[in-house]
Amino acid sequence: MVEETHTTTKTEVGIVISVNKVKFREEHAERTGLQIKEDAIAAGVKIKLTYVLDLEHEGGTVRIPDDKVVVLEEGMAFLAHPGGSDS
Q1: Distance CA 13, CA 19 (A)
Q2: 3-state secondary structure of 64
Q3: Residue 38 gets which letter from DSSP?
Q4: What percent of the chain has pLDDT over 90?
Q5: Domain residues of the chain, as ranges?
Q6: Helix (H) or strand (E) holding 31
Q7: What is the DSSP letter of 84?
Q8: CA distance 16 to 52
Q9: In this structure, is the dihedral angle defined by the CA atoms of residues 11, 46, 39 and 55, taken in order, positive or negative?
Q10: Pairing of strands 30-32, 52-57
């Protein structure tokens, strides 16, 4: 007897990004900073909506305000933190 293995792959849409090193699939090509934080929380990332969001890249980090629209790309990494003085 041969068992068929069905994986319901409806051609997964979305872009895999990470917030605080937790990866999740974002279903939208563009999101605001606030929406990214909301989606991260829904995906189980332990952050608050009041946290500051930074985009990490080779040259450092760029602050993403809540109202800034970001065009998402596969593998983007964000850092959400309380903000304030880190010194």
Answers
A1: 19
A2: strand
A3: H
A4: 76
A5: 15-81
A6: strand 30-32
A7: S
A8: 20
A9: negative
A10: unpaired
Q: Which of 16, 13, 9, 10 is nearest to 73 (CA)?
A: 16
Residues 6+ apart with CB under 8 A from 39: 24, 26, 31
Determine the length of the chain: 87
The tens digit of pLDDT for each residue in 3-32 reads 544 444 444 578 999 999 999 999 999 999
Tell me: the pLDDT tens digits for 43-62? 999 999 999 999 999 999 99
Q: Is 53 exposed, middle or buried (0-12, 13-18, 19+ CB in 10 A)?
A: buried
Look at domain 15-81 and name its CATH class: alpha beta
In 1-87, which ranges are continuous DSSP H helix? 33-42
Q: Which two tokens stand for residue 68?
A: 């800034």
**66-81 as b/e, with b when 16 or more CB fall inside 10 Å?**
eeeebebeeebebbbe
